[in-house]
Specification:
With 462 residues, this protein is α+β, with helices and mostly antiparallel strands. The protein contains ten helices and 17 strands. Helix 1 runs antiparallel to helix 4, helix 4 packs antiparallel against helix 5 and helix 4 runs parallel beside helix 10.
């Protein structure tokens, strides 16, 4: 993008060209910039609040692909619409409007030391990805060839953004597949089971961009204690999985009457029988258990972006007071109505730093209205726009990072592997136990037969 803004600036012979990208909250950041001399200051890496661009202006950028040209010396603004605002269809001839620039918009640009500007929207998947802004410290006009060139570059930039997004998704998919394969390798290794669970937990915490976690495995028999594996910072309360909130997530569909209990037992028996039959018929399937079962398992993760805001977890606040943990992902490990444990991942609060173009505290009472043409019209209690764009650093503590859809999907995939591995080991233990019992039975029968053979013969007389 640095090359793009440089080429446009050279072709337009203008003081400054920048690419302005929007974040999910509508705020913008200058991510690329090219300047000629020092007529205009650098805005690179600075953020601008969402209120600087009214909603109607954003809609015109998206639906009409509207370009906006402003000349402060001539007090003139020109808008070019490439698409029909109402239908979104491409116009055979651009719709051009001329108007007098609003005083607040003029003062806003004046405070930026800008006398003329050209703004072209950058779209991605019919959404406003960003803006290409060209600024000049003196009055100037743009020729049709310059406008066509700038628009062509922006269109090519939109294609490049789409290709980059596809490449990023492909890379993310490949990375997640590598993580899953690594976890599978760990689960199928010959190491001690305790080492395996611990390694898988640590790998999962790292893969989900988190800080700590815990793996809770319910015992197969009631006479045994559950197993708990932890990594890094933990809450003060050791067995949070035994609290009602965690139990309600793990046993969300637990049977509540005799008929449902019988259905649960039958479902578990069918699962075990299917797994045993699969292993018995083909021993090479030891590391697979059952692809069919794996495809049917659909874990339902429970994400909490800020547990301090959850009334159900208020009793846990004291347990987390000595930690920086704020976000939680809980993934039950189960199939149908059977749960063998859960995976809990923690994220710490974080501190964010944002470099704004101007002090946002001074502008907090400002509102941004919009003209009929959808161009910015900033109005404050003093009827004045922002006076300074000097960099101002905002530091926020106690911020959270929300769980993304991709992270939740990865957690689901890892949860399936964990569940299958736990069930596989339990089935193998069951097979070994049954084989041991059968061997003991055969040995007992053999001993009885031998004893019967000798003691059934009459003693011969000497």
């Amino acid at each position: 993008m640095n090359t793009t803004v440089q080429e446009i600036r050279l072709f337009l012979e203008i003081d400054r060209v920048k690419i302005y990208r929007f974040d999910p909250d509508g705020n913008g950041q200058v991510i690329a910039e090219s300047r000629e001399g020092n007529n205009l200051p650098s805005l690179l890496r600075l953020h601008f609040p969402a209120a600087d661009i009214p909603d109607l202006a954003r809609q015109r950028f998206i639906k009409a692909r509207q370009r906006a040209i402003v000349d402060l010396v001539a007090r003139l603004k020109i808008t070019n619409e490439l698409d029909c605002f109402e239908t979104g269809e491409t116009l055979m001839t651009e719709k051009i409007r001329y108007a007098v620039i609003e005083p607040c918009h003029a003062e806003y640009l004046t405070n930026m030391r800008v006398s003329s500007s050209l703004v072209i929207p950058i779209l991605h998947q019919r959404q406003l990805w960003g803006l290409l802004c060209s600024h000049h410290s003196q009055s100037r006009k743009f020729t049709d060839s310059q406008l066509s060139f700038a628009q062509l570059v922006v269109d090519q930039l939109s294609i490049a953004i789409a290709q980059s997004a596809l490449l990023s998704r492909a890379q993310e998919k490949a990375t997640n597949e590598a993580i899953i394969n690594h976890v599978n390798t760990l689960l199928n290794s010959s190491k001690d089971i305790t080492e395996i669970w611990q390694a898988v937990l640590e790998k999962t915490v790292k893969a989900l961009n988190s800080h700590s976690g815990r793996l809770y495995i319910i015992p197969e028999h009631n006479d045994k204690l559950p197993k708990l594996y932890i990594t890094r910072i933990q809450p003060n309360y050791s067995w949070i999985e035994e609290m009602f909130f965690w139990q309600s997530i793990m046993c969300k569909d637990e049977a509540t009457n005799i008929k449902e209990q019988k259905d649960l037992i039958r479902a578990n028996q069918n699962l075990e029988s299917q797994t045993i039959a699969n292993l018995t018929a083909n021993p090479s399937n030891k590391n697979k258990v059952s692809t069919t079962i794996g495809q049917k398992i659909i874990p339902h993760p429970y994400t909490i972006n800020d547990f301090s805001q959850k009334p159900q977890l208020q009793l846990l606040v004291s347990a987390f007071e000595s930690t920086a943990i704020r976000s939680i992902l809980i993934l039950p490990l189960g199939y149908q109505q059977q749960c063998v444990g859960c995976l809990t991942i923690f994220r710490n609060e974080m501190q964010t730093e944002t470099l704004w173009a101007g002090n946002q505290n001074e502008d907090k009472d400002n509102t941004c209205l919009e003209s009929d043409e959808g161009l910015p019209l900033r109005v404050s209690r003093r009827d004045r726009p922002r006076t300074s764009f000097k960099p101002w650093r905002e530091i926020k503590k106690g911020q959270i990072k929300e769980w993304t859809t991709e992270e939740v999907k990865l957690a689901e995939s890892l949860g399936i592997r964990l569940y299958l591995s736990i069930m596989q080991r339990r089935v193998e233990e069951m097979i070994l136990h049954q084989a041991s019992q059968q061997l003991d039975f055969l040995r007992a029968i053999g001993c009885d037969a031998i004893q019967g053979f000798f003691f059934s013969k009459p003693l011969s007389a000497e």
